[in-house]
Amino acid sequence: MASAPIFSLHDEAETLAGLAAAKPEAFHRFFDEWFPRVYAWALRELGSRPHAEAVTRRSLRRALMEVRDIAPATPLAPWLLSHLRREIAWARRGTPP
User: Fold this and answer.
1) 34 assigned to some structural domain
2) How many CB atoms lie within 10 A of CB 65?
3) For residue 1, what pLDDT is reported?
């Protein structure tokens, strides 16, 4: 089984800068790298594919809306996980985000 590529903090900073500049290739790289990971985390927590997909979409959308407000050296995994945890909490409570 092939493992996911490991990106350095430099790669992540480059991706964040590209996202902030609205570069399509940065969005594709971000989505290809992070959607499967965030979805896997959501699925483990929620146990439902439809709920995990919805929570993943919402958390990545919120993250992308805030991308210009974070420092370029911010590690992506903890930042995205914080968005996901918030979305999962809202989903479990049944409150709108």
Assistant:
1) yes
2) 10
3) 44
